[in-house]
Amino acid sequence: MSDPDKAMDEAGLTNPQVRDYVRHWAEFTGADRVEVVSIADDARLIEEALDAGELEPAGTGRYYSRSYHKDTARSEERTIVATNDPKDKGVYNNWRPASEMRPLLESKMRGALAGKTMYVVPYLMSPPGNALAPWAAGVELTDTRTVVLHMMRMARVGVEFVNDLEDPDSFVRAVHVTGDLETLGHGTPDDQRYFVTVADERTILHFGSSYGGNALLGKIAHGLRQGAYDGWDSRKFLAEQYMLIGIHDKQTGETHHICGGFPSASGKTNLAMMLPPDALGDRYHVSFYGDDIAWLWVDEASGRLYGMNPEYGVFGVAKDTNETTNPTALHSVDEGTGAIFTNVAYNPQTQEVWWEGRTPEPPADVTGWLDWMGAPIADREPGDDSPWAHPNSRFTTTLANVPNIAPDYDTPSGVPIDAIIFGGRTRDREPLIRAIDDLAEGVYDGLTLGAEATFAAEGVEGQLRYDPMSNRPFMAYGEGDYARHYLNVVGAAKEQPIFAHVNWFQRDPEDDHFLWPGYRDNLRPLLWLIQLKKGEVTGRQTPVGIIPTEEELLLDGVDITPEDLETILSIDVERWRQEIGFREEHLAQFDNMPEEIWEAHRRVAAALDAEA
């Protein structure tokens, strides 16, 4: 048996509540040894993982890993929020009683670390000293060394983050047990995997995966689900799946901060890491704070809405990341960054990595190349064009490696939020940008955020897959209560942020080309939004928000036809009237929806009817 006290003493872990927690789980899981880690252990753990074959070198100071072939993504159907109060049940949170889920998970974890090391990872999901730091400390216990290494890139790791807690008991207890992945019935009726957040006990129990979204418990389980529940329970803050950027005007010296939610495949990471277009680069600079999670609160001193990224790294999708779509992301995983690639194609002879979209064509010389499952590309049958990399292959790197990281990304204060934007991938109905200067209508718009379903998804023609605030997979309590909390938190700010909905993905119905060039040019509508908030432009009022006029947009150097520009700066009223009917059905699912949201819905519907 392990000697957890000796391990904790050697690591300088002094918090008595954490020590009790580690002792309990070391005995409960039957761990052979206990190791408490800090960021100073990264280099040693990398070498151990290389020696053990858990990682392979991907050039100097970069690493490659491959997961079990069925364990490559989050599993929403196996992810559960459990509490002791049935009133916490929502439509999307897959609620179950804590009295059922805790014993079930414990039964799977009992004795599961016999012969294994239990790594103790103390972490913090906020800048040290931040106003929300009391909810940001956690300790993940895991049996997988590569999970530890990913946590070191995605969170602030060290005993100092739990030793000095004002309340020694105020940390999230996060336990991850991988299990025997080949025997867990992945995707079958006998599936044994469970990913449970016991939110009102601030306990996370995940069994049956070593994939990042299921195993890096500081990230989604704490940063979003537990954070959202804590924010609501404390009435202090929001935890959202939002990117966060700063736009600096070199001419005026002003910096404005924008956060926002985008469903999967709607361009959130590319927007967060955006470079200004060449025509605007001399005047504007875009700073990266984060691409996935933001916690929002009202600063008591100023009365302004503030935000911060609780993460310390980027866990990005590799597919289609290249010099055109996201050069910033590519340089954040340059040699020497300590980045880890997962489930991309790999060449052990040259230590190169590749994924679909990295270059227009895959490497012509396939000698030595292995696909994401380790099979030689050279052994493929003629005509086999199956992907070299998994579509959800990833890169993991720390924020400090991002070339345009904001200089104040890790300061305790956070940054004031000027605008909250939403954006989904839709080929029609949504213009380039529409601004909303009413709180209830802005929250209503976020609750009805949607994107076109993939071709494999069933649904009504023209109907979106709704993803409220892009938080659908991460809801921790009832959606109506969530809407009320959102209204209360943002509504308490003395200076209200402006809301907006953006869409880079309108297509021509005839030849299917994108009407807007996107990527770096996406800065242009955001600059208009900032000008609108400052009163420098007025836009054109429509039933669904304020749209820029052609003269108000900075269009120098944009390759777009007058016809396409007219389309993306206009509203199809009949299409929108159809959308309103879908929205009503969507919102009607949710209990306790605030009357302000229904009033906003009726106002927009009436305005569309009047326009028609």
UniProtKB/TrEMBL annotation:
- Presence of keyword Lyase: yes
| Localization per record | Cytoplasm
Q: Where is the Phosphoenolpyruvate carboxykinase C-terminal P-loop domain?
A: 237-604
Cofactor(s) the protein needs: Mn(2+)
Binding residues annotated for GTP, in chain numbering: A265, S266, G267, K268, T269, N270, R394, R425, Y519, R520, D521, N522
State the reactions this protein catalyses: oxaloacetate + GTP = phosphoenolpyruvate + GDP + CO2
EC numbers = 4.1.1.32
Q: What is its main location?
A: cytoplasm
Quote the protein name from its UniProt record: Phosphoenolpyruvate carboxykinase [GTP]
Species this protein is from: Mumia zhuanghuii
